[in-house]
Amino acid sequence: MTFDIKVFNNISEEGLKQFDDSLYTINQTQNPDALLLRSKKLHDMTFSEHTIAISRAGAGTNNIPVDRCTKDGIVVFNTPGANANAVKELVLANLLLSARPILKSAQWVQTITDDNVEEIVEAEKKSFVGTELEGKKLGVIGLGAIGAMVANDAYRLGMEVMGYDPYVSVDTAWNISRRVKRVTDLDELLSTSDYISLHVPLMEKTHHLISTEELKKMAPEAVLLNFSRGELVDNNAVLQALADEEIAGYITDFAEKSLLGHEKITVLPHLGASTEEAEINCARMSVRTLKNYLETGNIKRS
Ligand code: MLT
Questions:
Q1: Vertex 298: Cα angle to 294 and 302 (nearest 5)
Q2: With a 6 A CB cut-off, is 199 part of the ligand 1 pocket?
Q3: Domains of the chain by range and CATH?
Q4: Where does 12-139 have alpha helices with state H?
Q5: Atom of ligand 1 minimally distant from the CA of 39
Q6: What is its EC number (predicted)?
Q7: For 231-289, what is each residue's pLDDT tens digit?
């Protein structure tokens, strides 16, 4: 007996190598036994009656109709934690980029045509003064694998870190530095943070978690970072808050037309998990878990 797997694009070959040819075929039939994907949206897809599992090489499952799958007996797997380090590093990089005009000043230096570079640089550097992260307050909303790593490392950079997560597990709580202050009142975090970083999954109740009311509670110097899901933030409310100087900036990993070209908004093309290491980790974990299920019926992640 063999299993046919429908593989969508952007799955690392390192993961696919784990499918043993004697037991698996890839993209060979119209009725696959399982689907393996990264960001492909499956909401409009009709699944073959053979399909018994869907494995996502990534943490979020909002691109999969999980309720429908559950009703149809299709098991859905994800890879929590497998790309957490990559996302954490991108968040920390953006905190640093936000505090210091690194990109702007480096671009400016390249435009100098005069031979007297040193003198020009010396005269102009006063316009590129930044701030330090040390002593600044970071509010982390969501203390799962990624949020906990961001909180710990920001603390190591000297930031005062607050974490809010009404659902955090005991295990995760133990992984967070004792110096990360756990708050139970979201308003406290919103109103006292210099930077606020979102690390919650997209669900019905987290859709537009940050909207007009929440933005109004933030400090005028506050910068909001969103490396989780675009829909957690009401973009129109952010544009209004920036126009009214209620917050200082928005950094998001989710491109949307209305956000482009705004001087106080940084938009990245969903790069959080885009490192060689994270792509390999996610692909390996999603394939291992899928194989384990198909071969043994065990739903334990491996
Ligand atoms: C995730 O949910 O972990 C990310 O969306 C992964 C990705 O970028 O594919």
A1: 90
A2: no
A3: 3-82+276-296 (3.40.50.720), 84-267 (3.40.50.720)
A4: 13-16, 66-71, 84-99, 102-110, 117-124
A5: 9
A6: 1.1.1.399, 1.1.1.95
A7: 999 999 999 999 999 999 999 999 999 999 999 999 999 999 999 999 999 999 999 99
Which one of 56, 62, 66, 83 would you pick to mutate in the ligand 1 pocket, going by the greatest count of ligand atoms within 8 A of its CB? 83
Considering only CA atoms, which residue is closest to atom 6 of ligand 1? 58
What is the ipTM metric for this complex?
Answer: 0.94
Q: Which residue reads 């004697």 in tokens?
A: 22
Which structure tokens are listed for 249? 């900036």
What is the CB neighbour count within 10 angstroms for residue 278? 22
Residue type, 219: A
- Which amino acid makes up residue 60? G
Q: What is the CA radius of gyration of the chain?
A: 22
Core vs surface per residue 237-263: b (16+ CB within 10 A) or e: bbbebbeeebbbbbbbbbeeeebeeee
Enumerate the H helices of the chain as residue ranges.
Answer: 13-16, 66-71, 84-99, 102-110, 117-124, 145-156, 170-175, 186-192, 212-217, 235-243, 276-296
What's the rounded Cα separation, in Å, for the pair 88 and 84?
6
